[in-house]
Each structure stands twice: as C-alpha cells, then as structure tokens.
Amino acid sequence: xxxxxxxxxxxxxxxxxxxxxxxxxxxxxxxxxxxxxxxxxxxxxxxxxxxxxxxxxxxxxxxxxxxxxxxxxxxxxxxxxxxxxxxxxxxxxxxxxxxxxxxxxxxxxxxxxxxxxxxxxxxxxxxxxxxxxxxxxxxxxxxxxxxxxxxxxxxxxxxxxxxxxxxxxxxxxxxxxxxxxxxxxxxxxxxxxxxxxxxxxxxxxxxxxxxxxxxxxxxxxxxxxxxxxxxxxxxxxxxxxxxxxxxxxxxxxxxxxxxxxxxxxxxxxxxxxxxxxxxxxxxxxxxxxxxxxxxxxxxxxxxxxxxxxxxxxxxxxxxxxxxxxxxxxxxxxxxxxxxxxxxxxxxxxxxxxxxxxxxxxxxxxxxxxxxxxxxxxxxxxxxxxxxxxxxxxxxxxxxxxxxxxxxxxxxxxxxxxxxxxxxxxxxxxxxxxxxxxxxxxxxxxxxxxxxxxxxxxxxxxxxxxxxxxxxxxxxxxxxxxxxxxxxxxxxxxxxxxxxxxxxxxxxxxxxxxxxxxxxxxxxxxxxxxxxxxxxxxxxxxxxxxxxxxxxxxxxxxxxxxxxxxxxxxxxxxxxxxxxxxxxxxxxxxxxxxxxxxxxxxxxxxxxxxxxxxxxxxxxxxxxxxxxxxxxxxxxxxxxxxxxxxxxxxxxxxxxxxxxxxxxxxxxxxxxxxxxxxxxxxxxxxxxxxxxxxxxxxxxxxxxxxxxxxxxxxxxxxxxxxxxxxxxxxxxxxxxxxxxxxxxxxxxxxxxxxxxxxxxxxxxxxxxxxxxxxxxxxxxxxxxxxxxxxxxxxxxxxxxxxxxxxxxxxxxxxxxxxxxxxxxxxxxxx
Length: 829
Known about the structure:
Elements: H1 3-20, H2 24-30, H3 64-74, E1 96-97, E2 100-101, H4 103-114, H5 118-128, H6 135-150, H7 154-162, H8 166-190, H9 192-261, H10 265-273, H11 280-296, H12 303-331, H13 341-349, H14 353-362, H15 364-396, H16 416-423, H17 427-431, H18 458-461, H19 470-475, H20 482-507, H21 520-546, H22 551-570, H23 576-606, H24 618-633, H25 639-658, H26 663-681, H27 690-717, H28 727-755, H29 761-788, H30 802-809, H31 819-828
Antiparallel strand pairs: 1-2
Helix pairs in contact: 1-3, 3-6, 4-6, 9-11, 11-12, 12-15, 13-20, 14-15, 15-20, 15-21, 20-21, 20-22, 21-23, 22-23, 22-24, 23-25, 24-25, 24-26, 25-26, 26-27, 27-28, 27-29, 27-31, 28-29, 29-30, 29-31
C-alpha cells in the first residue's frame, strides 16, 4: 500500500493525539516569566497564558504511526464533566469474528477515520500505483493488527460493541482534554511563587553542599596522612614488643641462673659462722633453693654450675653439721625427769622443722642419726614416766575381791544374825539400796560392792575424765578399784600416744618418694618411741587383771578399752601397733572376766547352801545385782559368760526349792526369788518364769481348802452326757461352798499375803488365787445348767452366784490391778 493511501488518515490521527497531550515546554518557559506578565486568573490571581500553537505534524515514516495514533486516541478517558453532543443515529453493531473483529467492522472504522469512501481511495491508489496489492487486504490486515493490540482496552471494546460514531467520540474526548489542560495550567500558575522559592533553596543547598564537599575532601586527605603515620607506629610498636618479650625472657632465665648459682659472701658467712636460731632458717631456705636449682639443671651445659657445685657441697656439709649439733643440744632437755616433752616439741622442735627437712633432703645420714637420737631419748623418757606412774597406780589399787569372794560364798558369821532381818526388810528397802563409793580412803571404810554397780558406774559416765594423779592419791590415802586404775592408765596411754603421733607426723615427714608414703617415717618413729612404754603398760595391766576376782571391775575395764579405742579413732591415731596393743589388753581383761564368771558358776554348782524359809535367798540377790550391773555396762561379749551364771543360778534355786517341806512352799520360794530378780533387773527376761510358777502355786494353795470343788468339776466335765449324774451329787458341793466361801476367800488371801508379804508380786499372787476360785465356781454353774437347765436347781438351797463371789474378790484387789498372773488365771478356765 502506498503512502498516499494512508496520508489523510494518519494526519487526522496525529492531530487528535497532539491535542490530547499538553506541551510541557510551555510550562518550563513560564517559570522564568514574572507574575505581572500574565493576566489575572479568576479565583487565583495568576495569569493564564494563551495556549501555544499546536506543534507541526510530520508525516509518518511508516504505517506503524497509524497504530500509535489510534492507541493514543482511544487509550484514555477524561472524567471531567462535559455536555454530551447530540446522539448520532445508531450505527449497526460491529460484528466480531472468532479471534478479532470482522472485515465490515474494520472497514467501518477506516471510513469513519478517513471521512471518505474507501473505494475512492482504492481507485486513486490503483491509478497512481499500478501493480501494488489490493487495498482491502492490506488495509484491513493493518487495521486488524491495530485492533488486536487494543482489543484488551475496555473503553474501546465498549465503543465498538455499541457501534458508536468514532468521530463524535473523538470530539468529546478533545473537549474533555481541553478542560483538563486549562485546569492544569491554572494549578501550575498558582504554584509559580512556591516553585521560584524552591528553586532558590535548591541553589543555596547546592552551594552549601559544594563547600562541604571541598571541606570533606580536605579531611580525607588529612586522614590519609594520619593513617600512614599510624601504620608506621604500629610497625615500630610490634618490633619494640618483640624486643621487650625477648629481653624479658632472657632476663628471667639469666636471673634464675644467677640466683641459683651465684653464692654471695654474705650467704657463706651466715652458713658457716651464724648461730643456729630463728634467723638461721632463711639462710637454710636460700641455700636449699640454690641446691635444688643446681640439681634440677645439672644436665644443662652451663659452666657456672660446675664452679658453684663444690662450694655448695661444702656449705651443705657445714650446715648439716651445725643443724645436727643444734638438735642434739635441744634433745638433752629430754633427759630430765620432770621435763614437759609436749612443750619442747611444740615450742622448740616444730619451730625448727625446716632444718630437719633440709637434713632429710640433702643429708639423709645425718637426719637418720638425729632421728635415732630422738627416738632413744623419748623412748626412755616415756618408759620412765610410765613405769613411775604404773608403780604409783599399783600402790593405790584396791583389790575388791579375792579367791573366796564368789557368788555362792557363805555370808560371814557375824552377819548371820542380820541376814533374816535383811531379807525380811520392806520391798523398797531391798530394791533401792545404795552401794559404797568406788573410791575409798585409808581409814578402812566399806569398799565397792562386789555385785552391785552403784557408784562404780561413774567410771562409765566419766570415761573422759583426767587421769588419776598418783601423788595426790597417795598423799590423801585414796584407793581405787581395778576399773578406775585401768581407765586412768589407758587415758595416759591415749593422751601420750596422741600427742607423740601428732608431733611425729608433722616433724618427721618423708620427703623421699621411694621410701613410701609421707607418714612412713612418722609411723616408724612412733612405734620405736612407744614400744617400751606399751610393753610396760601391758605387763602391768595383765598382772592386775590376772590377780583380780572382781567380775564387775574386769567388765568395766573392758568397757574402758572400748571407749579409748573410739577416742583414738576420733583423734586420727590409726597406728597398727597401737590398735593391736589396745585389742590385746582388752582381750586379757575379757579372758580374766570369763574365768571369774566361771568361778561364780562353779560356786553355784558346788554350793551346799540350804533354804530355811521361803524368802529370797541372798545368793539370788547377788546374782540379780551382778546381772543388772553387767547389762548396764552394755558390752555384748560380756553377756555370754553371764548366761552361764544365770543357768547355774536357776538350777541352784530349783535345788533349794526342792528342800522345802511341800510343793506349796517350793512354789512360794521360787516365786519370791524370781520376783526379786525381776524387781532388780526391771526387764522381762527374768520375769518370764513367774507366770507358770504362780499358777503352780495357785493350784497347790487351792487343793487343801477347795479340793472337793476342783475334783467334782474335773470329773463331772469328763462325763458326757450329764443325765447320769444324780442331783444328790451336786447338792453337797453347793451346800459346802455356800457355807464357807467368804471364809475361804479371807483365809487364802491372808495366807498368801503372809507368804509374799515383802514383795509387790504377793498382791498379784493373791488375785491369781482368788480369781481361780471364781473360775472353778463358774465351771460348776455351767455343769448345773447342762444338767438341770436354766431354771432353778432341785435343791433346798440355791448355789450362790459367781457375780457375788467376784464382788467380794474386788475387796482384795491390788492397787495395780490383777496383773499378768491374774489374767492368766482367768484365761485358764
């Protein structure tokens, strides 16, 4: 298609497009005009310049300009109100084909845009350009391409779908654009002063920013110079730091070498000439440091070590010689008899412990010599002290018993008249007796009781009391039993061993690992020091225990050993030899205790004593006091020998009971003796035989006076059924019991209380006897009910009721109630 065909349509399209877009160059030129050059605008006071002439329209260089013009014409809509033009006659609707608009619609668009008949244009084109393609095909294809590009525009679709006149639509759009343009111009003119002020401010800011840029540029140049200088300083600082570290390391090594090898004349003078005292300790510490340094660096190839070695060796020998003389001189004080060794150890030897450590490290031979000298002197010191103390304790030891003082020994003849009075004393007098003091004077007052613990229990309570002072005891004529002497000796041993072990562990510390633990030397020193003393103590205690027949004293000595072993453990003294010594001494006392308890058991087995009455025997009281004392001491191994004595005592009482004239007296005798043991022990172990013995006594006591009732009840209960028992067999029993039951209760209660008048158990026995009467009478009533029914019996006199008998028995009830024996009597029925 030639350019002449589209020229007219293109020109019209471009004109419409230029009218839609305002010329912005106009607004740019307006900024530079004054407000007076423009005429006033109504409502704003600004001048509205005349609209500029439209720019010239150049012919399109290609058919594509047609598309852009059409798009500019149809692509925007103005919302400003405008009077609508008169409606054109309705055009036929544009038919759409699949994928676009139909050929008729495209032709209509061209006709309306070009304003001429498409056929005329086609003919003109054919006349000028022969041989070109057909107008319909070419034009319609281009229109179709343009329509396909804008077919998504809703406004264009709406116009085309309605078949509206495009010229009218274009005219309406031009009017709207003109109105919008006028409004924009008025707004722009109103903002001209503000834009001028804004331009001035922008110019000022640009000037200030230019100055700041110049200033910052200068700063940047200065900072660059400073950064270079800092980098130089960092390099110099790193170099100086490396030099300082190297010099410090070298100085440390050189200082250590100099301190360890340089021997000042002052040090030599002090080691050789100075007196050994507290000021000598820093000198030895300095010498020790130099010797340690040379020894640790002996493999280093430093010539100074070879020069310092011989000089240090001479100083070592000289220091060892002076230290040896110092310690030997201090040990001389231990040879005096009344020297307080603990004061010398704490105030002298421990203060100079570094000297002994120096000897142990650098001169073991001299250290061994000093240590052995100490062991010999202190061992003799302790041995002398203990031997002197043991002799003094042997003088104040009071033998409480001898070979004849056994539990079954007969009482002295001069006391025979008071024996009966003693055992007939009130119960409170027998159960609350006091024993003599464990400590007796030289005046010959009564010594400790052989069987009752009494005041001897103070040894257990005051186990940690100070040891006995022998000179004070001898001066006042005081005497002590075995347990007090043994406790005092053990206290001396524990105190001496504790202080000596504490000193040895602190002073004689093993510095050589190849010898073992740090305390190996201390253990050896302690054993050598204490061995002679422990032998002397063990021999003395063994002699005292072997000659003792005091079972309580031996038992208390065993208790004392237990307590002092615990004391050693609490003080941290765990020496095998000392533990063995304590166990050996305790074993010796325990063996002797078993032997003495065997003597007591043998005496009971061979005793020829007789029981002249039913009251408790004096041997029973001895056993009860001995057993109670052993149980109070509370050492488990002591109980087994006591059990042997208990068995022999029980057999002894049974033999004495058999000597009574009848069974009733035998039971009374046994009950009284067991009751005494129970009251003293106040435990259930000895009270166990009381219940069966009480019931045996009840049966024996009721047999003479109530035998007819007992025999009838037991024989009749064996007969089943009771229809064969005649009423005449029941009636004599009823008649006799009704006539004498009150008298029977009174007589039995009085007789029982007479037999058991001295003991609390007598009231219990009375209740058991009277309760058993009720039991038999109730059993008799049960037989009556079975034989004659619940109604009255066919007797002239009806039997008294059991309730009446029980009410009468309550008159004889003990304040403490019926008790275990009475309850057993009730349950027996």
